[in-house]
Amino acid sequence: MAQAGKYTRVAIAFHWLIAALIVANVVLIWSTTLVADDTIRPLIDTHKSIGITVLGLAAMRLLWRMANPPPPLPPSYPGWERWAAHAAHLLLYVVIFCLPLTGWLHDSAWKDAATHPMRLFGLFPWPRIGWVMGVEPDAKERLHDLFGLMHTSIAYVLYALFVVHVAGALKHQLVDKEPELQRMLP
Q1: Which of 20, 78, 99, 138 is spaced 20 to 30 Å from 52 by Cα?
Q2: Domains of the chain, earliest start first
Q3: Residue 1 pLDDT > 50
């Protein structure tokens, strides 16, 4: 059970683990521009594995949140800030689900997917999305481009939401002198 005003230990663990994996994945994918072409495949495969892991953890986090509602925001927050915080959290959830799903769709529409099986962290096979794999080649290429664009666009939305989320937490902590960070620290 959460203390008054504080998230549960499980919610805190999910929050920080998902955040760390997302940051690692962003660093990983941006670093692909710095490596030779013959070494890029392991980075991309790790990126995919982390994305699928985030998807699973996000599902578990959402289930946990439904069973263990978060603590209410402090009553000192103005109504517009409460609304903005709830909207930002909802958008973060949407993005955290849409980003790995569009990546999975993008990967499933890859023309070489059938000859390059996906393995989660190199340990066991991970399926591609069957209906996408079965699409006719020209349409599949268009889907690959579309899902890639969606994945990249959603990533930029994530970057913006991350800045807003951190700025809001720091504003409450440092300017308003509310113990905001303590709500999500172990």
Answers
A1: 138
A2: 9-184 (1.20.950)
A3: no
